[in-house]
Specification:
The complex is a heterodimer of chains A (510) and B (243).
Chain A lengths: L1 H25 L9 H14 L17 H12 L10 H17 L5 H4 L1 H13 L1 H6 L6 H15 L6 H18 L3 H18 L1 H9 L5 H19 L7 H12 L12 H6 L3 E3 L1 E3 L2 H14 L7 H23 L9 H12 L10 H26 L17 H16 L8 E4 L6 H4 L6 E4 L11 E5 L3 H8 L3 E9 L2 E8 H9 L2
Parallel strand pairs in A: 3-4, 3-5
Antiparallel strand pairs in A: 1-2, 5-7, 6-7
Helix pairs in contact in A: 1-4, 1-6, 2-3, 3-4, 4-6, 4-8, 6-17, 6-18, 8-9, 8-17, 9-12, 10-16, 15-16, 15-17, 16-17
Chain B lengths: L14 H11 L7 H5 L13 E2 L32 E2 L4 E2 L6 E3 L25 E3 L4 E19 L12 E5 L8 E5 L23 E17 L8 E3 L1 E6 L3
Antiparallel strand pairs in B: 1-2, 3-11, 4-6, 5-10, 6-9, 6-11, 7-8, 7-9
Classes of the chains: A alpha/beta (510), B mainly beta (243).
Chain lengths: 510, 243
């Protein structure tokens, strides 16, 4: 009877954690305007789902892996959104939402190893992390990579009946990571370095493993086969384009990052751990402190279970190596911290391992501390995904798109209603770095894109000019169009020109 | 960040659509609202025979001001405070008066900062409201004739605030009101289209002719700005004659 009651409690606790994670991820999912990267990802997805296009090819120079667009295409097909015009932010963002939910559930696989309370603690910290909640709502690759990465780590320390199956499964998951984003290689390096330190510290056991290497040959082969199968399947688009496999390798040498994202070495450390005041205090430092406690405990002389403590240390070293490698790369964006921070949350949850055997005051203090951290995290996550979702002081709101450009789409639709006999097409877009504008102009078929101001734009009733072209465009259109200021992204205004006859009609319409 | 290969779409203008548009171009319009769109913030002289409206102007912010991003000045750039006449005895009725806001939990500042007489741009001088269409409302305590309203949103950076609407009313709920300024040309705030021009914030603020409208309450709307999504108010002065 007691066992049954504890199971009910366990199920209830997990249901609560998953509900909390769902609320933070799904609430007002469509509210935030579509980010530059989300819009380009949507375009890639559209190529997959649109039956008229009927082709997909991985671009090793500009694109991350195909898994995200493949998953999003499935969601779009299910929701009957198989064209650029019909696609919605909600459907596309469901993919990272689901990935974020799975990430929260992944520690469950360690309940036999560490017990229910530590893995529940890890799950709730993963659920309420402002960083992870924020990027679970953004249609980019990071949450999928974080979920698969943490799953790979956890599977490595889960007992399987068959070692071959275990390594095959891990290989499959790592192959999916590769199919998600080429930066999976950074995780492989970080995990290898962490494993190297553990091996050095336990050199006797390592030597025994080395001597016995022949018994691992089939396991290693199944790992390679699993990885090749999953990555190969997606890069070759279901074996329909075998050249995609070569492109997957080539991407490590030809991939081009965009300029303007270089930041100092300490950027990630400051972002995550150092409290900064901006409307509210931004930091996830308390989770970091719990993680430090967790690692510290693994070195205490009283610790008895070496396998458990080595597992904790492996996660800790992995987190540190991830942080170091990403910090050494000058190209930095906040979402690159998702997988490293998932390690930290896992580690922080494990700080209460063995709590059931502690004496009462220690138990109470641990639970109170944990409760305090969860409360603070949840509050910050609510702010990050709510009031401060696009606020410049929110460290995760990185070059957000302005709602002002979102309202431009509504306005164009209203104008079409007001003047049904006048077409707003062709629409001209002049300049570069204009994404996510194509997403907001997706109701229109005839859109011309020019790098520089071209006299042909005079024929366009509506012209959007990026600021670098604005001087030339304003000269070309000064007699024929009305100039209106819109905002594309934070600190990126865009001029919208509306031909005067349309403007007059709009302003005089009831 | 990644660009899809579609971002390099060659310049494309569909000829059929072009022909359609060019055809539409020839339609005659009887009202040239565009003229009002390109100079509609121009003020008259104010009250004939009145005295010149004076107000204390804040300093030009140079140090620490973010680099302007080259927004075009749509309304003529304000180089000095405009000459505007108001009846003798006109005073700032808003000074120290109670202010409320649509955002119950402002991100920065308190609503009272709007009527405290301080017009600097640093933190502690302005009220910051959440994104979207937001308003602040000043209660003048009595219905009075209002001749001018001067507003400063944020002049520490060259930025334009979207959908600025200024209304006055005797009803605190603004179920009936008079609109004195409105540059929400696309009606995104759903309060009606306006043909006033967007303008770049400056230390001179924006002066609105209130035409002697009798009202107790003044409400100012905005909907983010060209730099970010937030709404800011440093100071609002309401010039009228106390009754």
């Amino acid at each position: 009877m007691e066992i049954c009651a504890s199971k009910v409690w366990l199920i209830l606790c997990w249901a609560c954690v998953l509900s909390l994670a769902t609320m933070l991820r799904i609430d007002n999912l469509e509210k935030r305007a579509f980010h530059f990267d989300e819009a380009t990802g949507a375009r890639i997805t559209e190529i997959r789902v649109n039956p008229k296009r009927n082709y997909y090819q991985f671009n090793p120079v500009h694109n991350h892996g195909p898994l995200l667009s493949s998953a999003a295409a499935t969601v779009c097909r299910i929701k009957d959104e198989s064209s650029w015009q019909r696609m919605t932010k909600h459907s596309l963002r469901l993919v990272p939402v689901i990935s974020g939910m799975l990430l929260v559930a992944v520690p469950f696989l360690w309940r036999k190893r560490f017990g229910d309370i530590p893995v529940l603690a890890a799950a709730v910290l993963l659920a309420t992390s402002p960083l992870l909640a924020y990027y679970s709502r953004m249609f980019i690759h990071e949450m999928m990579l974080a979920m698969l990465g943490l799953l790979a780590v956890i599977l490595f320390f889960v007992r399987f009946k068959s070692r071959i199956f275990k390594f095959g499964t891990i290989g499959f998951v790592i192959g999916l990571m590769f199919a998600t984003k080429e930066t999976f290689a950074i995780s492989i390096i970080a995990w290898s370095a962490a494993a190297g330190i553990i091996a050095l510290c336990n050199w006797r056991a390592s030597m025994a493993l080395l001597i016995d290497w022949k018994s691992y040959r089939i396991s290693v082969a199944s790992f390679v086969v699993g990885g090749t199968l999953s990555a190969g399947w997606f890069y070759s688009d279901g074996l329909t384009n075998l050249g995609g496999v070569w492109d997957a390798v080539k991407t490590f040498f030809v991939y081009k990052t965009t300029a303007g994202h270089d930041k100092p070495f300490g950027y990630y450390f400051n972002m995550m751990i150092v409290p900064t005041k901006g409307g509210i205090w931004w930091h996830e430092g308390f989770v970091f402190l719990l993680a430090v406690v967790s690692v510290g405990r693994s070195f205490l002389p009283s610790t008895k279970n070496a396998i458990l403590e080595n597992t904790v240390r492996f996660v800790a070293y992995s987190a540190v190596f991830h942080l170091l490698i990403y910090s050494m790369i000058s190209y930095k964006t906040p979402w690159l911290m998702c997988l490293p921070w998932a390690h930290v949350c896992l580690l922080a949850g494990l700080s209460v391992r063995g709590v059931t055997s502690w004496k009462m005051p220690a138990q109470a203090i641990a639970i109170l501390l944990l409760g305090g951290v969860i409360f603070q995290q949840h509050r910050l996550a609510k702010f990050a995904t709510g009031r401060f979702e696009t606020d410049p002081r929110n460290p995760y709101a990185y070059t957000p798109t302005s709602r002002n450009i979102e309202s431009a789409r509504e306005w164009l639709a209203q104008m079409s209603e007001v003047m049904p006999t006048r077409s707003l097409e062709p629409i001209g877009v002049v300049g570069s770095e204009y994404w996510p504008l194509p997403w907001y102009l997706r109701d229109y078929q005839a859109i011309g894109y020019w790098r520089d101001a071209d006299p042909a734009i005079k024929q366009c009733p509506v012209v959007f000019a990026m600021m670098e072209t604005e001087d030339e465009v304003s000269v070309l259109l000064k007699d024929s169009h009305v100039a209106l200021t819109r905002t594309l992204r934070r600190n990126v205004p865009v001029m919208m020109y509306l031909r005067k006859d349309h403007w007059n009609k709009w302003m005089t319409a009831e | 960040m990644k660009l899809t290969n579609t971002s390099n779409i060659p310049a494309l203008v569909l000829s059929a659509a072009t022909a359609l548009i060019l055809g539409a171009c020839n339609d005659k319009e009887t009202t040239d609202a565009s003229s009002s769109a390109s100079g509609s913030n121009a003020l008259g002289i104010g009250t004939a025979g009145g005295v010149e409206l004076k107000t204390e102007l804040p300093k030009e912010v140079i140090e620490g001001s973010p680099k302007p991003k080259g927004i075009k000045n749509l309304a003529p750039e304000t180089k000095k405070f405009p000459k505007f006449l108001v009846p003798e005895g006109t005073v700032n009725l808003a000074q120290g008066k109670k202010v409320s806001a649509s955002d119950d939990y402002p991100i920065l500042g308190e609503p009272e900062l709007i009527t405290d007489g301080e017009k600097e741009t640093g933190e502690g001088y302005f009220l910051e409201l959440i994104e979207g269409t937001q308003w602040v409302q000043i209660d003048l305590e009595k219905s009075c004739p209002i001749y001018a309203i001067v507003m400063w949103h944020f002049h520490g950076q060259k930025r334009a605030y979207h959908d600025i609407i200024v209304q006055v009313s005797d009803d605190p709920e603004f179920k009936e009101s008079v609109t004195l300024f409105n540059n929400d040309y696309d009606n995104s705030s759903k309060l009606g289209k306006g043909n006033n021009q967007p303008y770049i914030e400056s230390r001179f603020g924006q002066l609105v002719d209130a035409k002697g409208t009798q009202a107790r309450y003044v409400r100012l709307y905005s909907n983010g700005n060209s730099a970010n999504e937030m709404n800011h108010y440093i100071e609002v002065e309401v010039f009228g004659k106390p009754e």
